[in-house]
Amino acid sequence: MLASTAPPQPWYSYRQDRSPNYVVRQTDGRQTLKWATAAVPKDWAHVRVTFVWAGGIGWRSQPGGGHFSLSLNGKRVLDFPFVQKTTSWRNEDRSAELRYVVRRTVGEDSLGLFFLTVPASRIGPGRSAELAVTGTAQNSQRWFAVSPYTDVTAREGAVY
Fold first, then answer.
1. DSSP one-letter code for 65
2. Are 119 and 69 contacting, i.e. CB atoms less than 8 angstroms apart?
3. Domain boundaries along the sequence of the chain
4. How far is Cα 20 from Cα 45, in angstroms, rounded to an integer?
5. How far is 102 from 57, CA to CA, in rounded Å?
6. Which of 80, 89, 126, 135 fits 42 for a cystine, CB–CB 3.0-4.6 Å?
7. CA distance 48 to 65
8. Count of H helices and E strands in the chain?
9. Which 3-state string (H, E, C) describes the chain?
10. What is the average per-residue pLDDT within 48-55?
11. Above 70 in pLDDT, residue 73?
12. Residue 107 carries which DSSP code?
């Protein structure tokens, strides 16, 4: 499941020059992108779980100062700004981490892989999570995108 307030747009991805991308911009604070993760395995015995997806952040020359908000199952996890290099962010209580591994830079945009690590208890064995990203109202075209690849972990292996 992938739902967006805007239709997918063809753009670069970390592995293709023309790929569908679902985008959220820092325009009016109302753009939202939601998607479901794969289910946590039923026999998951670890304290933490990491979800991975392909995407990017872009349009460096647009007005800055805003951020994107990431939510998990309807609850805000953390905010992250525009970046063009590999970076990680943690939430206030340090229970969640979002890591962005840049694999490609094209002009004003960076593209790569995102890794969200959270306590497994926030999801539960055999269950998937709903992730959502919104952009702040900055009157800026800066964007966050998800490339709808379903084979990232199989194709990339352990890249974290």
1. S
2. no
3. 2-150
4. 35
5. 10
6. 126
7. 32
8. 1, 12
9. CEEECCCCEEECCCCCCCEEEEEEECCCCCCEEEEECCCCCCCCCCCEEEEEEEEEEECCCCCCCCCEEEEECCEEEEEECCCCCCEEEECCCCCCEEEEEEEEEECCEEEEEEEEEEEHHHCCCCCCCEEEEEECCCCCCCEEEEECCCCHHHHHCCCC
10. 96
11. yes
12. T
Q: Which helix (H) or strand (E) holds 90?
A: strand 87-90
Q: pLDDT class for 160, splitting at 50, 70, 90? A: very low
**Domain 2-150, CATH among 1.10.10, 2.60.120, 1.50.10, 1.10.1740:** 2.60.120
Contacts of 154 (CB under 8 A, 6+ apart): none
Global pTM reads 0.94
Output the six-digit token pair for 104: 């490609």
Q: What is the mean pLDDT of the chain?
A: 93
pLDDT by residue (tens digit) across 103-149?
999 999 999 999 999 999 999 999 999 999 999 999 999 999 999 99
Name which of 153, 151, 144 is nearest 109 in CA terms: 144
> Which two structure tokens, joined as six digits, stand for 110?
């960076």
